C-alpha cells in the first residue's frame, strides 16, 4: 500500500511539482491550498506525512501543527518557508515537527527526508543478506577493518554520510562474528519517539505506564545473542544516552517499570553522519558514551569517493529490481552509463539504488537510458572519472591509458568498456592483446 502524503502549499506550481516528485518516487500525494482544506482532508484520510508552508492564504502551518497536536494526531510534519525565522523553528520543533526546510526545497533532500521518516524504527534480520563485493580501495580498507574487528566483541562506531551503506558494514561485522546466526537488529535512532525511546530499547512490564496493558520486549531483548545496530546515534536524546551508557558499563538493564535486571547479551555497532566531536562540544552528545561506543572506528566513504563502484552497484541493483518488479532489462545504454559515471551522487548508494529501481520500472526498452534515470543534464560536479574514459577511442597516443581507464570504470566488464569507447568488443580484445592488458 502506498504511503499517503499531504502537501499544504498555496503556490500551485510548487505544490504540483512536489506532488509529481512524490508520485514518481512511488508515494500517493494530495495537495491543499490552505489550512481549512488541509484540516478537512486530514479528517477524511489517513496521511503518513504532512508537508506545510508556514504562510498560507487562510491559516498557517504552525496553527495546523497545533491543531494536530490538540486532536492527538501523531502524523510526521515538515514545515517549509521562504522566510526562515529562528523563533518559528524553535516553536515548530517544540510542537513536534520533524524538520524545518527553507525554500527552495530540493527534490533529493525532500525525498531523502521522507524516506528516513518512513524507515521502520527497527528491523530484525536472522539470515544473511545479499551484499555486493565492492572493489574501491577505500571500501576494501573498510572491509579489511570490518573483518579484523568482527571476531571480537568490541563496540564499533561507523562514521559516514547518509546513504553510504553504513548498515551493510554493520551487517558484515555481524556475519563475520561468532554471533552470526543470531538476530541482527537495526534501530533508526533518528525516528525514536522521545517519550517512548526507553521503553522501545529496554522493554516495559505490564502497568509500567498508562497504556502499558501488556509487557513488551525491547530492542535489546530482540537482539539477544546477536548484534544491535544503532543507526543515527547522534540524534539520540541526552536522557536516553545516559541510560545506554549505564547498560554499556554494567552490561545489564531493567525494563521500564520492572525490578529484575537482565543481561545485555548483545554486541553494539553504532553509526552516525554527525560530527560527534562538534556535538560533544555543543553539549548534544556525551563524551563518555562516545568513548564507550568508539572502541573501534570505521569511516565509510561517499559514493563520489568510489567511482569504480558506481557501474557494478548499478548493475547489482538493476538485476535485483528487474527480478523483483518482473521487468526484462539487460543493461544500460551508452548515455545512461555516461550519466551514471558523471553524476555526483549526493545521496550516495541509497540514491543510486532508488534511481535504478525507478528506471527499471519506467524503462520501455531492455536498456536503461538517460531519460529513465531522470537526472539533471549537466553534471553536478566535475566528472568523477577522467574524460578519456567516456570519450570515443580516437587518440592513438593515449589509447592504452584510455582503455585501462575504461576497464577500471566498468570494473573489468569488457563489453561495457567497449560501449563506452564506442568500439566493438572484438576490437577492444585485439587492442588489449596489443598492449598486453589481459
Automatic annotation (TrEMBL):
GO terms for biological process: phosphorelay signal transduction system; regulation of DNA-templated transcription. Coiled coil: none annotated. Residues 132-361 form the Sigma-54 factor interaction domain. This is Sigma-54-dependent Fis family transcriptional regulator. SUPFAM superfamilies: CheY-like (SSF52172), Homeodomain-like (SSF46689), P-loop containing nucleoside triphosphate hydrolases (SSF52540). CDD domains: AAA, REC. PANTHER family: PROPIONATE CATABOLISM OPERON REGULATORY PROTEIN, TRANSCRIPTIONAL REGULATORY PROTEIN. The modification 4-aspartylphosphate is found at residue 53. The lineage of its organism: Bacteria, Pseudomonadati, Bacteroidota, Bacteroidia, Bacteroidales. InterPro entries: AAA+_ATPase, AAA_lid_NorR, CheY-like_superfamily, Homeodomain-like_sf, HTH_Fis, P-loop_NTPase, Sig_transdc_resp-reg_receiver, Sigma_54_int. It comes from the Bacteria. One of its GO terms (molecular function) is sequence-specific DNA binding. Residues 4-118 form the Response regulatory domain. Keywords: ATP-binding, Nucleotide-binding, Phosphoprotein, Transcription, Transcription regulation.
